[in-house]
Design a protein that fits this description.
CATH architecture of the largest domain: Sandwich
CATH class of the largest domain: Mainly Beta
Shape: elongated
Number of domains: 2
Radius of gyration: 30 Å
Distance between the termini: 72 Å
Number of strands: 12
Strand content: 35-45%
CATH topology of the largest domain: Immunoglobulin-like
Structural class: alpha+beta
């Protein structure tokens, strides 16, 4: 005689497989559901007439198989939704080609005496100062931007050092020191770049921005 405990265990294994804790494929899960129903029918046929299966047991087992079916359908729906999102992301990314973007980073490229960058603030500040460094890490310029609102702040560097000398074009870095009433406020750097192309690969849709390759769309904070 097949016991209710055996049937419940079978359903639990199916449930685990569909939740990622097992390795059964969709077809294997469907076959397991058929076996579950066969097991339940066999259990009903062979139950002790003097000690029939409790209604609560049957309800519990039917609820489990219903849950398994629901999870399988949900997984299939999520997979279809995920597949449909990739072409949409590609189309959105392609429209960004040729546009400048601000993305996570602390680099600033000086081109013809102009360097563009920015930063984000979680709250307004009464003081925001930007320090710019050359490739060796030496401080070359300071900019006092004064009070700034919460959100994204863009700034333009004229490429000159503290003495007013125009520095050569190239790659520089910057840091931001922001404060409110003397208390430090965190600021996240944003570097500027021009979107050159879009790549769709194993990592999803990525951008080639300036000299940087495979920049995730999530790192882009603003399109200019």
């Amino acid at each position: 005689m097949v016991t209710a405990t055996q049937a419940t265990g079978n359903a639990s294994s199916i449930f685990a497989a569909l939740n990622g804790t097992g390795t059964a494929s969709a077809s294997a899960a469907a076959a397991s559901q058929d076996r579950f129903m066969t097991l339940l029918v066999t259990q009903l046929k062979n139950q002790d007439p003097l000690n029939p299966m409790d209604n609560a047991q049957m309800t519990s087992q039917m609820a489990q198989i219903s849950t398994v079916s629901g999870i399988e359908k949900l997984n299939a729906t999520l997979q279809a939704l995920s597949a449909s999102m990739t072409p949409n992301q590609t189309l959105q990314a392609v429209s960004m080609i040729g546009h400048g973007v601000l993305m996570e980073g602390t680099g600033v490229e000086l081109v013809s005496g102009v360097g563009l960058a920015g930063f984000t603030l979680s709250q307004p500040v009464d003081s925001a100062k930007v320090s710019i460094y050359d490739r060796s890490g030496a401080l070359v310029s300071n900019m006092d931007l004064g009070a700034q609102s919460a959100g994204i702040t863009k700034f333009q560097w004229d490429g000159k050092d503290a003495s007013g000398t125009l520095l050569p074009d190239g790659q520089y870095t910057f840091s931001v020191n922001a404060s409110l009433a003397g208390n430090s406020v965190a600021a996240s750097g944003l570097q500027y770049g021009l979107v050159n192309s879009v790549t769709q690969g194993a990592q999803g849709v990525t951008l080639n921005v300036g000299q940087q390759q495979n920049v995730a769309l999530s790192k882009v904070q603003q399109i200019l």
